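Problem 12. The chain below contains 136 residues. Write out its predicted structure in token notation.
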Amino acid sequence: MHNIFSLIHRPKSFKHIEIVSEVSSVDSNQFTLPNFSDFVIPYLQGENLCLKRKSTMRNIIIETLIEYLEVRYTKHWVIKALGRKLLLKYPKIHREDCTSKRTRKEELGFLMSRLADRRRVRKNRKRKKEKQSTNF
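Solution.
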């Protein structure tokens, strides 16, 4: 006979099941992923990497995604859907630990947060540069 705690207890893989079902709800026709270089495939497949190599690969992925977003999408909400699509295609992708509550909520919160931050900084620099060029 089961006690109440065994009925309430969720299996360890339950979070993974929730994420996969949420990720699979992303419209695969609407959101596609860019073609990543062969260099970053070990990161995407979750292979064991040293910290320096992992950081380099993460930066290359972020740069690739920024370029891709600039060409294809202009809406900011696409970043969240893009993160879900990454999880669907690369379920073993490295997940970074993060101390911020804001980025801990999402499975790839750290990567997507860095992506959004860099993209925002670039847009602001571009606006500032355009504003300066019109003043002269």
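Discussion. The chain is about 60% helix and 0% strand. Students who got a different answer should revisit the alignment rule from Section 12.3.
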